[in-house]
Amino acid sequence: MEELQLEDPEAFMNFLRLDMATFHELLARAILDVMEAKVMKTPIEPQDWLQVAEQFQGRLQFPHVLGALDGNYKGFCSIVVMGLVDADYKFLWIQVGDVGSSSDSQIWNHCALHQSIQQGILGIPDAEPLPFDDVDIPYYIIADYAFAIKSWLMKPFSRQGLAHDELVFNYRLSRARCMVENAFWLLANRFRCLLSTLQVKVATASLIVRTCVVLHDVMILDKEDVNHNLVPGARRDTAKLEDMNHTGVTVTQ
To answer: Computed over its alpha carbons, how large is the radius of gyration of the chain?
Structure first.
């Protein structure tokens, strides 16, 4: 199929009775229909959130983290991709399609994930003491200065003249928050169409981005060895994918 598309686009179109753009859009929709709900699942139970927190604690020595949050866009004729990422660079949630002129805080304050957390329907774990302490501390998402601090959202100290322990805290938080920035970098470099202008409508661009994110998460679940061969990841079983066989983006309209 791929060889036919490359060697003889007209024969490819006659074979499918579809133009190439329509074929790719249908393929993207099929990937999302089959895989999106199974691969990119936002936790809704306390035990699932606790697994995310254990990842951040074990890998980055930052406790009680339920995910790293950020938005990504190019700043001109663009749409924003906002994502929540775990410590394995896997997207737990995304929102795609807000205009590039919108700030991260504007998008976040009106998105479904924010509303669900506010309403207490996402199964966020109850507050518990940090390691070697006896004071209950809430579990939280980590983000940058653009977001408003909440009991469930942590951001760096922003004032001048920080004390040593506050500087250490900022360093640790920034180090953990880099998971979402690195995830966007991996996403764009795996699917390099996201680094250029997409000559499609906004709705189609959003579809392309969502598909790329789902495939990115599949690659996280299925690791690659040093020879770039696919090795099924340990988390594939927990995602129940055994039956899978049955970034800011610039657009032009």
So the answer is: 20
